[in-house]
Design brief:
It is a single chain. The protein is mainly α and 124 residues long. Helix content is 85%, strand content 0%. It contains four helices and no strands.
């Protein structure tokens, strides 16, 4: 293959990775600043302080991701298994119960998610 084709493929892969990372960072920061802080902790927060909380949470997420990238908890397969285990233990039960049961409320879902994360962390 010519060098320019390989360059285009590499540029596309890097663009896809950066786009995914940017989307995840945006989701993390908005979930913390809007859903957690504005909805639960401080409903009367100003937009300026909400934006500051979003930026701080994004910075914390970047620092955590950098630290985990430099000091991975295991090989790639182990890290992927950990991520899927955490997702399966925390998100999946709350999602399934939210779909199929009318008795689930937010406190029960959060409690179930916390139990799933703690039990997975203790198991590992």
């Amino acid at each position: 293959m010519p060098g320019w084709v390989i360059g285009l493929i590499a540029a596309g892969a890097i663009a896809a990775a950066l786009s995914t990372a940017a989307g995840l960072l945006l989701a993390i920061s908005s979930a913390i600043s809007h859903d957690l802080i504005k909805t639960i902790i401080n409903p009367k927060i100003s937009e300026k302080n909400e934006m500051l909380a979003a930026r701080l949470s994004m910075t914390a997420a970047i620092l955590l991701a950098t630290w985990l990238g430099l000091n991975p908890p295991g090989f790639a397969a182990q890290v992927v298994a950990l991520a899927f285990g955490l997702a399966a233990a925390s998100l999946f039960p709350a999602l399934m119960m939210g779909i199929f049961s009318k008795r689930v409320n937010s406190k029960g879902a959060v409690a179930g998610m916390l139990v799933g994360v703690v039990s997975t962390a203790v198991y590992i």
